[in-house]
């Protein structure tokens, strides 16, 4: 525990403008209104199953339908089947969903909805359940009256899962009987038959992912599924979702998720999981229903300097925002400025808070449901329905303004934080202006410790951000000066997770990085000005080096996120050992590789353990870590922004206990650190 305490101590710190858009008044339903009843009166039968096209291309081009054939696509198969069950819940016919990971990584999803229709589809002469599972774009979501609100991957979910499974079995309880059918790689290998009687209704789908498609792995990660299913439970208040891992009979894991508080519970969870201290006791919650659209919002402010906004449309996360998120942000900024002028938080008529000021420390979840959701892009990353904007704007403006007037102490605490953010942003602006004037006087000079490269075209260059002057010296002498630049860092780096932007801009450890890269930071970031194609973090393979990497990655994630999103950030992988015998030598990057090299050389080897980059001479550093022909580097990617945001907040935030729990829980995955 002494090492953990040392990490904690080293992590301690020294101490939009949103465009105005037309606002349309919207009828607002009171907070205690029941959420829109999405149940439909029409019968859900064979006539609601409409066929659009066949299933030919799925196995040939699976990435077009599930994004990838790696772990992300593998888990997406589960989400597609679960989302179909959730559509039944949205329609008012399902209350329980059970997901099981069976031995052999077989997935079972059971719900108590109406059951997939089994009647004959007149167009194809097949049972409707067979059509749903074998024909692309067949289901109750394409103009039929089966569902008013649905998510899913453009309605192709069930058939795509079937096509990408080694085998799939379906059981439908409907009309007092149980129907069953089996498929292999998308093709029916048995007829739909009655196997029993049951009064209850529902659907069970079991499938085994096809290793011919998922060549990387077919093993499911419990934590990944847990996060997604828990999120679905938050978004559907009262829906019970269970997840069981039955792969190890002696170590069965079971989790149940059911949140009567819905989005308010979601906001509470997001803050507690990050160790964030709230500014008020309970989340602020409001909702509105109008015709065939509904919007629900929960929000809470904290002592954090970051904003956390998650938006959803028909339970699909809109990671790129959209019209519902625009309506929320615009109304929020208007509320702050109108309330601020009315109650003299803003003294002058020209005083104005920006959108960023109003959202500092905000945790918010926005969920809208609408009949014809229009998503931009194949991955449904952004909502495009313009008619949802005034609906969200209306409820946010009316209800939040009323809440502030009825809770003046909470409003005062939130406004105090927003005003502090505004002052910090103004200080940051002045610091940027001063830095620009200074650069102009100095002829736009680069940082003094930067050893730049001679190549001027960014696409052919790379910069190594190196821990310490000693390693920096070796890197400068060992590099290829034509295209490799070296920037040594020294001293304690700022933890930006606990700092406002004014502290970040003026920090003498981060300023050289910002100047060298040339992009600016925050709202002024411009990827087109990036001076190097590869930004490579090169630190020692020990706890201190891991800490430096985490601090830099936190800075890039919070203030230069497009660098990560576009794949410009890398982590160098220096070797841990040099294994030598006589004139023979080899480098090893792990304990296992070291032992392998020793065996290959017949034993009796000399082992040198590199404690730091500075122990390598320039030639060794070049051939092991910097030579493009032989080096190993890790590209930093951002596959799940929500999870990344939570992890950075947890690791670099103020709360000690959640971080300690995270470290202890994940210590088994850490290798090759001197701890």
Detailed description of the structure:
The chain is an alpha+beta fold. The chain has 4 domains: 46-236, Histidine kinase-like ATPase, C-terminal domain (Heat Shock Protein 90, 2-Layer Sandwich); 263-415, 2-Layer Sandwich (Ribosomal Protein S5, domain 2), CATH 3.30.230; 446-574 and 615-654, Rossmann fold (3-Layer(aba) Sandwich), CATH 3.40.50; 577-609. The chain contains 20 helices and 28 strands. Strands 2, 3, 7, 8, 9, 10, 11, 12 and 13 form a 9-stranded mixed β-sheet that branches. A 5-stranded mixed β-sheet has the order 14-15-18-16-17, with helices on both faces. Strands 22-21-23-24-28 form a 5-stranded mixed β-sheet, sandwiched between helices. Strand 19 and strand 20 (382-383) form a beta hairpin. Helix 3 packs antiparallel against helix 5 (157-163), helix 4 (128-134) crosses helix 5 (157-163) and helix 10 packs across helix 11. 43% of the residues are buried.
Content-based structural category: alpha+beta
The pLDDT mean sits at: 83
Cα gyration radius (Å): 28 Å
CATH superfamily of the largest domain: Histidine kinase-like ATPase, C-terminal domain
The largest sheet is: 9 strands, mixed
Strand content: 15-25%
Low-confidence runs? 1-41, 141-145, 671-675
Shape by Cα distribution: globular
- Tell me the CATH topology of the largest domain: Heat Shock Protein 90
CATH architecture of the largest domain: 2-Layer Sandwich
Name of the top-level CATH class of the largest domain: Alpha Beta
Number of strands: 28
Give the proportion of residues in helices. Answer: 25-40%
Counting H and I runs of at least 4 residues, what is the number of helices? 20
Distance between the termini: 10 Å
